[in-house]
Each structure stands twice: as C-alpha cells, then as structure tokens.
Amino acid sequence: MVQSLDRSQGRAGGLAADASAAPATFTGNRALQIEEPLIFEMGQPGRCGVDLPEPPKVKDRLNGLKRAGEIGLPGLSEPQVVQHYTRLSQKNYAIDMGVYPLGSCTMKHNPRINEKVARLPGIGDLHPLQPVSTVQGALELIDRLAHWLKALTGMPAVAMSPAAGAHGEMCGMMAIAAALEARGERVRRKVVLAPESAHGTNPATAAALGFTVKPIPANERGRVDLAALKAALGPDVAAIMLTNPNTCGLFESEIVEISKAVHDAGAFFYCDGANFNAIVGRVRPGDLGVDCMHINLHKTFSTPHGGGGPGAGPVVLSAALAPYAPYPWIVKDGDKWRVAEDGAAVDGKPLGRLKAFHGQMGMFTRALSYIMSHGADGLKQVAEDAVLSANYVMASLQDVMTPAFEGPCMHEALFDDSFLKDTGVSTLDFAKAMIDEGYHPMTMYFPLVVHGAMLIEPTESQAKEDLDLFIAALRSLAERAKSGTAEEEFKAAPRFAPRRRLDETLAARKPVLRWRPSNNPPEGDPMKQAAE
Ligand SMILES: *Cc1c(COP(=O)(O)O)cnc(C)c1O
Questions:
Q1: With a 6 A CB cut-off, is 411 part of the ligand 1 pocket?
Q2: Rounded distance, CA 499 to CA 455, Å?
Q3: In the chain, what are the domains?
Q4: How far apart are CA 348 and CA 321, in angstroms?
Q5: How high does pLDDT run on average in the chain?
Q6: Which of 171, 294, 295, 299 should be mutated for ligand 1, with most atoms under 8 A from CB?
C-alpha cells in the first residue's frame, strides 16, 4: 500500500497505533527498520545522479510521435538510489539471516563455493548458442551431474532439461503416457492415483495431461492406506504419483508393497522426489521399484530457491521409460561431447523437446559443486543430519505442541493445532507471533490432511544452539497460548513488524501495480473500494 510522505504529520500517520502495537514514531521508522517509501514518492523531478552531456541537435524523424509530456521517471541522487535499494534489500528475511523453518521447501544452505563456481567466467558467461566445440567442459559438467543423479537414485537414465519439480512431473508423466501409448493402453488407462496428502502439482500435472485423478486416503499413521490403494488399482489405472518421504514428513514404510501392487496392476510408479534430501545416500529409489522420479535440484542439492528463484527438475527414468525421454542428450563421440537432438542418438522414441536448450545450467553447476564438495559420504550425512534435526525439534516440543502422527519423522516435523484447542489462538495467530520472536513462520495449513498443520523443516544446516533457541521460542509461545490469557496478544501479532496483518487475499486478487501521484488518484482504487 502506498504510504503518503507527509513530513509535517510524520509518516506513521497511516499506521495503526492501537495499544497492542509497538509505540508509533514520528518517522514511522522502528529502531533501525526504516519506513521505506516507493522510489516514485522519493523522487524529485529534474534531479539526476549523473552528469550527461547535452544531446546533439538532430532532425526530428519521429513523424509527430515525439513524447510531449514528462517521462515520469523518479529523479534521485546516487546516494538516494543506493540507500533506497540497500534498505529494500534488508527487508526480506533470508536463509542467510537465521533459522528458516518452512517445511516442504528444504534447501536452506547454499554454500558460497557453489556461487563462486557458478560465476567462473567459463561458466557464468556461457551462451546457449555458442558453438559446441567451445562448450565441451559445460557438456561434460552436465554429463557428470547426470551420472551422480543416476548413481544416487539407482536408475539407468535421466532427462536433465526440466526446469522445476512440476516441469519434471510433466516430463515423467509424458514418458509414462508415451509408454502406455506404445502398449496400446493410453486410452484405457486414464486414471492416475494420488494420495490425499500429495503436493498440489501432482494432481495438476496428471489433469493437465488428460488423466483423471483419483485420491487415495491416508491411514491413521499418515501413510498411504494400502487396502484402499489395492482396491483402487485396476485395468484403468495408468500410474500412481507418490511422494516419499511424503508431505507429512513420513517414510512410506510399505513402499515396496505399494510398488509391487502398482506393477502387478500394469501401472507405473511415479515418485515425487522433492523430499529426496531426507534419504539421499541412504536409499536408492530405483531399488524401491520407482519407474521415474523428478529431483528438485533446488531442494536437495542447494541453490537458493526462496522467493521462487530458478529451479531444475531432472527426471530419472527406468529402463522401460528411458526410450521416451525428451531431448537433448549429452553424448560423447570419441573424445568429443555433443548435444544430440533427435531419436537417432538413443535407442527409442524421445517425446520431443520440453525446454529450450539443455536445462538450467546455473543450477546444474551449483548442484554438482554441492555434490562434489560433500562427496558420497557427505551426502549421506546430509540426510542423516536433516532427519536428526527434525526429530530433535519434534521430540523437544511434543509435550507442549501436538505432533500430527505417532513415532519418529523423517526430514520435517508436523504438528496439528489440537494443542491450541479452546485457547482462541489459531495456527495463523501462532505463526504471526513467531514473527515477533524473530522467526519466519513455518509452513502452515499444509498438508491439508492435517488440521491447522504446522510443518517445520530445519534441514541439516542449523547449529544445535540455534535450534535450541528456536525450540525455546516455540515452547514459550505454546505455553503462552495455552495459559488462556494471551489470546489478544496473539490476535494482535505481529506487533513489532513494520507491517502487521495484511489483506493477502485482496493483494493477490486486486494487486495495485501502478503508482500514481497522490494528486491524481487512480480511478476505482481497489484499496479505497475495500475500505468502503
Ligand atoms: C516443491 C514440490 C513440488 C514442485 O516443485 P517445484 O520445483 O516447485 O515445481 C512437487 N512436489 C513436492 C512434494 C514439493 O515439495
């Protein structure tokens, strides 16, 4: 929301100054958190940070299209620009600032060595249209990463080009569709099974490819209900899409039986590998009977992916599906690498191209750097430490919060909201109060199968002292919520943040994307409408 810059009244004028909030200040600033106006509000017409020469006088050849009015760009000095953007850069809570408990999200640690390698001129300056003879090292890098991914998953092939997890799902399910087509069963097998706890992208992918999605219920242990699965399997089923460990942070302990039942019914087993960080180096999905699985490089093998940054979703494929993998393939002829872009390079019928060029080179570089700097033994330890950290959080809080399921978890600790029953405090209030304590909230209300879900994923990279402080903060909040006297305080949270409870739905439905000077308010201002 645009905040007016009326200095005589102080900028905080528009902020709620109710008793539960931190005291209002004249500037609107809170300690060193600066109340930042939009750059357009700061700018003064005519001010400029650089000294440009007068443009030469040339004949106007614009045929009357020359701009008549002001260009409307903000005018600022260089320090104003630097200060504005530096202040903005400090507004976001980030993995480099502290514990980031979001679950179903994973990658928190982004070693600096990765960034260094990704910026080496021979890698950072590559252009995808460069002659192949000049990018031999890059192709070898992709091939070496592919080798690691195959070895870690125990699968014979990998399609490297998909650009994210959801794109990988599309790739894997297209390969399954192609294999069914080749068997003459594409029309008959139109059902895809997905557990109720599945990430939304699974049913979305299946539906986008024309399959009908049938949900499979979870049992009271938070796992796939095997009997329900077996009852749903039949000659019309194309595949199951299953996440393991699943989105409740639990290992599907009957995975081998599930895989056997699926194959006995003539269907394929698509594994969503977004949680691979919990088992990498310990379990090879290929040994569990998986036919294909995407790997979110940005969740398991580093790359900062907060804020929807770039991703990469290579898909490992079984021998039955490998022939349908999309191009391109990186192949070696003698001692030269080349990019194969047709079926002749492989023994099969590639399903075509899914993405321009070869995939996300920057992500490949970071993932390989992460993998090689850990080594096989280090990757195994990543999984062990991630699981240990999550169980430490769960065990430390289970007397004050309520774990959603019995027994140990994998890489994330899932709580439901029954510990908040009759307190008047909701999961949302609890999460907002975490902001006051200096923590980014955990994932909330996901997975949907758990009431008021709170999903915490510490990953392997937090020091024990930092986890201990985080645990103590949550314990304190849980105790305060249950004391029965803090409902108002929770409803008012966050009290110390520069912005408090925003109307996120309105912001998403009616985003204000264009700034207008306050003397020229937009017609039908959605913010005004909302206020009315
Ligand atoms: C993140 C995630 C996805 C989707 O991956 P993107 O890279 O965000 O497209 C799919 N399934 C699960 C379980 C996930 O956590």
A1: no
A2: 24
A3: 126-359 (3.40.640.10)
A4: 9
A5: 90
A6: 299
